[in-house]
């Protein structure tokens, strides 16, 4: 027997539900209904400075008004922080991830240069390699502990 179809809608509560978000929710909800599946609502509330309870309520009310009530959720992404940290530690320890100490402004500048050069999809993680990619984990940990 095939697995049950499970789809999700994961808005960020940094603004009200907009037409693009409603469209995505509608397509996922319809797909779930067509395949006797489950429509899950996950709130991407990890941007603490910009997220608000009022925006969450607005999203929930908008979805309800549209008749797109979730079968599961809402689940809040912030409630899984410890699981995400554990998974990140595993990736770091396995050498499949690394700490990148490149200043945000430098990363932003590089993304702009890559986009101008027509390589937006390749910027950071594509052709542009972080100078910290091959830094040994123990050295990276020393740097993080030092701030």
Description:
The protein is mainly α and 147 residues long. It contains 5 helices and 3 strands. The protein has helices at residues 19-34, 53-65, 81-93, 104-116, 137-145; strands at residues 6-9, 38-43, 72-76. A 3-stranded parallel sheet has the order 1-2-3. The longest helix is centred in the first third of the chain and has 16 residues, at 19-34. It starts with 5 loop residues before the first strand and ends with a helix. The mean pLDDT is 89.
Q: Ranges with pLDDT <50 over ≥5 residues?
A: none
What would you call the structural class?
Answer: mainly alpha
Biggest beta-sheet profile: 3 strands, parallel
Report how far apart the termini are. 52 Å
Number of helices: 5
Task: Jot down its keywords.
single chain; 147 residues; mainly alpha; 3-stranded parallel β-sheet; 44% helix; elongated
Task: Describe how the helices and strands are arranged.
Blueprint: E1 6-9, H1 19-34, E2 38-43, H2 53-65, E3 72-76, H3 81-93, H4 104-116, H5 137-145
Parallel strand pairs: 1-2, 2-3
